Amino acid sequence: MIIIVGAGLAGLSTAYHLSGMPYRLYERESEVGGLCRSYQTNGFTFDYTGHLLHFRQAEIKALVERLLAGKLQRHARQSFIYSHRTLTEYPFQVNTHGLPPEVVRECLMGFIATLTQAASHAPPKDRSFKEWILDNLGDGMAKHFMMPFNEKLWRVSLDELTSDWVSWLVPKPELKDVVNGALGIKDRAFGYNPSFLYPAEQGIKVLPESFLPGIDWLKNGVELLEVDTRRRRALFRDREQGTTRSEHYESLVSTIPVPELVRRCTDFPEHLKQAAEKLRWVSVYNVNLAVSRTGISDKHWIYFPESAYPFYRVGFPMNFSPSLGREGCSSVYVEISHRPDERRSVEQLVDEARSGMEHAGILRPDDELIVADVKDLQYAYVYFDRHRAKAIPAILAELERRGVHSIGRYGKWEHTSMEDAIGQGKQLAEHLRAQLVQPASA
Ligand SMILES: Cc1cc2nc3c(=O)[nH]c(=O)nc-3n(C[C@H](O)[C@H](O)[C@H](O)COP(=O)(O)OP(=O)(O)OC[C@H]3O[C@@H](n4cnc5c(N)ncnc54)[C@H](O)[C@@H]3O)c2cc1C
């Protein structure tokens, strides 16, 4: 028996690709999707912050397009940065035109200096995120976007973060692109996601739900309590009935966050338990608002690097699909990061979000909020720091030795997308299927 824990995209994809094999899929919540969910309130649909589809793997793109045939729309990305009371296009490094001339000059001169000066002495793999920014983009772009934006998002000094995850998320531009961007010349879309796909209706939840017809066995409202990796037994609790059940497994696929999984393993080496407890991450308050005024923005989303704004990004669901709100109204999601143990009240968060949005000219003082709702995304962005670099490979290898495959964004403790979660589930299912068909002794 294969036991799968968590029906987010990684768990659903594993189950879907194991079809016909003996498996059980358990999910703690009453619905599937994990982070990739949507909910409705007062006639508006919100995702757990905006979830847009970008693809780099042809086979996952083909799978999603088959599962959601006729339900996806392609959008040319309208993502902007608001600073110096000016909107400039994302990404910052190739779109400084329109900012005050002295800012453009600092960004340009700083970038040129990276091409002529020696980089930091640290070998690339040991470079901190801050060193990576200075070495690759220069001190002007660091000062005017990269440092304030990332410090606001991560809530930690960028010296503490490593740079091994950065290069595909933050591409280094060529000088020509930076100069064109400073002069306002456009000759190609820069960045890894100049367009994206999004469901025409009902929000991103249609993606996880599209796996359901291909799932043979799923139980919602059941949480993993304990794993005895020596006897290969997992203990679950039905949250509604309060009953527990113990299951034997040959393989356990876990998609829950690594610290949560390791804490539940009753017989795991103590030094790895301690290492798992020291993993760090940042949480996100997702503040969802709606007003009875149409067209508060024509953008998809906007980044806010400046400290005058409490949020690092806001987005406009009805610009992904008008069906996500009521006619004559507008909705907005606001992302405010916080340390996992830091708590703020709903009233405080809504007040902060609202006054920041007024300050940015998106909301007006006389706009009445017809939705003001907050979700707390406990695990949002994991820290790539020096501890993670050592701890994660050791923890994952030990879990594998004990028949536990930890996958997904928080199961591998990484910055990955919906596409990656689906891809990891597919890859693992194919591996497990091959193992069951051809046992190791064969
Ligand atoms: C703010 C934010 C914005 C994002 N935007 C995008 C985007 O635009 N595009 C994109 O491609 N990706 C985006 N992502 C990433 C994307 O959400 C994830 O890569 C993907 O949803 C991860 O799926 P998963 O299955 O690995 O994990 P999860 O979705 O976290 O699934 C894990 C599941 O395990 C369940 N679970 C937890 N504990 C237990 C337990 N003890 N017992 C049983 N079940 C349990 C949870 O309820 C959950 O359903 C974003 C992420 C964040 C944080």
Detail the topology: elements first, then pairings:
Elements: E1 2-5, H1 9-17, E2 23-27, E3 38-41, E4 44-47, H2 58-67, E5 72-76, E6 79-83, E7 86-89, H3 101-116, H4 129-137, H5 139-154, H6 166-169, H7 175-183, E8 195-199, H8 206-210, E9 218-220, E10 222-228, E11 233-238, E12 244-248, E13 251-254, H9 258-264, H10 270-277, E14 281-291, E15 301-303, E16 313-315, H11 317-320, E17 330-338, H12 346-359, E18 369-382, H13 386-401, E19 404-406, H14 418-437
Parallel strand pairs: 1-2, 1-13, 2-9, 6-15, 13-19
Antiparallel strand pairs: 3-4, 5-8, 6-7, 10-11, 11-12, 14-17, 14-18, 15-16, 16-17
Helix pairs in contact: 1-14, 3-4, 3-5, 3-7, 4-5, 9-10, 10-13
The structure holds flavin-adenine dinucleotide.
Overview of the molecule:
- The chain is α/β, with parallel strands linked by helices and 442 residues long.
- The protein has three domains: 160 residues, FAD/NAD(P)-binding domain (3-Layer(bba) Sandwich), CATH 3.50.50; 150 residues, Polyamine Oxidase, Chain A, domain 2; 97 residues, no CATH class.
- It is built from 14 helices and 19 strands.
- Strands 7-6-15-16-17-14-18 form a seven-stranded mixed sheet.
- α3 crosses α4, α4 runs antiparallel to α5 and α10 packs across α13.
- The model has no long low-confidence stretch (mean pLDDT 95).
- Flavin-adenine dinucleotide binds next to α1, β2, β10, β18 and α14.
